[in-house]
What we know:
Blueprint: E1 5-9, H1 19-28, E2 35-39, H2 45-51, E3 57-61, H3 78-83, E4 88-91, H4 94-99, H5 104-116, E5 120-125, H6 129-133, H7 137-148, E6 158-162, H8 176-194, H9 196-201, E7 203-207, H10 215-219, E8 226-229, H11 236-248
Parallel strand pairs: 1-2, 1-8, 2-3, 3-4, 4-5, 5-6, 6-7, 7-8
EC number: 5.3.1.1
Subcellular location: Cytoplasm
Keywords: Cytoplasm, Gluconeogenesis, Glycolysis, Isomerase
Amino acid sequence: MRRKLAAGNWKMNGTTQSLKDLSALGSAHKGSGVDILICPPATLLAPAVQTVSRSDIRIGGQDCHDQTNGAHTGDISAEMLVDAGASAVILGHSERRADHHETSEDVRAKAKAAQAAGLMTVICLGESLLQREATNTLDIIGAQLSLSVPDGATGENLVVAYEPIWAIGSGLTPTPDQIGEVHDFMRTRLERRFGAGVGRSVRLLYGGSVKPENAAEIFAISNVDGALVGGASLSAKDFSPIISALEAS
Ligand SMILES: O=C(CO)COP(=O)(O)O
């Protein structure tokens, strides 16, 4: 049975002030039946780890380099994330694919390094509106999935997040049928590539305008094992009811 996962991606948001919300979230969901992961900006990794030390929240990075160390100004390695106390990393977010020209091959190399360092990788996939309107969403997702995910997946080291680019920060969400179609497809592809046991153990998250108001409906969809939440993960007031909806699902 897959354990549900509520993941928050703070993106380039948050200061030490935000740790108060993290602390409140930890108290509100102590002993939760679902996994909770918060990925703050790199500047807050170490204090965030400190803040959640007596709660059940785990802390993750938002990206890592594919090398262990070296002359890569501004980058962070998977080993450095581990050293800071992180246990997971988001990779291949569409914002990084766009802003930093990351390809699926780049994402796979980063994921390989992160998994070797012992991190759980949350690998993001998603189509643009143009691609969806051309009705080849599953082709896009299939290609991103096979190219971005390295060999050697397990239920512990891999989480896949389906984040339609047009749904991120827009207030738009796909219909439950559209989400279900992509999630069922990803499940089948993972089972085919890694075998039924591993394929069924990898958690699949939906991301894109998840809010307290739509969370329960999204969590009822087949093969949705949780959410990767952006804006609504920044405050305990908004993220806590989303976690509660997942706990109740
Ligand atoms: O990109 C996202 C999470 O990684 C989703 O962002 P929003 O929840 O703000 O739409």
